[in-house]
Design a protein that fits this description.
mainly alpha, binds zinc ion
């Protein structure tokens, strides 16, 4: 029997279908966002170029963004959604 276990942050390994994984990735991606709009953030710090901008923080985890959830979700979203949703 082929094992199809996948690592998901915050959970034990799961044996989900691809579509279930992508739905979970979408939920995580929607929830684990930076604590400020990246466009606003970049504009603000463009105007003050000599100071390094503080790292954006995940509004759920309160750690540097992308947090491990956003990072995982970005890797597991369906390709077109990831391409349009990526802030980079
Ligand atoms: Zn997070």
């Amino acid at each position: 029997m082929v094992s199809n276990l996948r690592y998901i942050p915050g959970r034990d390994d799961v044996d989900w279908s691809r579509s279930t994984l992508q739905q979970h990735a979408r939920r995580l991606w929607d929830a684990h966002r930076p604590d400020r709009a990246l466009a606003e953030y970049r504009l603000k710090w463009f105007l003050v170029p000599r100071i390094s901008p503080p790292a954006a923080v995940c509004r759920v985890c309160l750690t540097a963004w992308p947090c491990r959830y956003a990072d995982w979700a970005g890797d597991n979203l369906p390709r077109p959604a990831a391409a349009t949703a990526s802030p980079r």
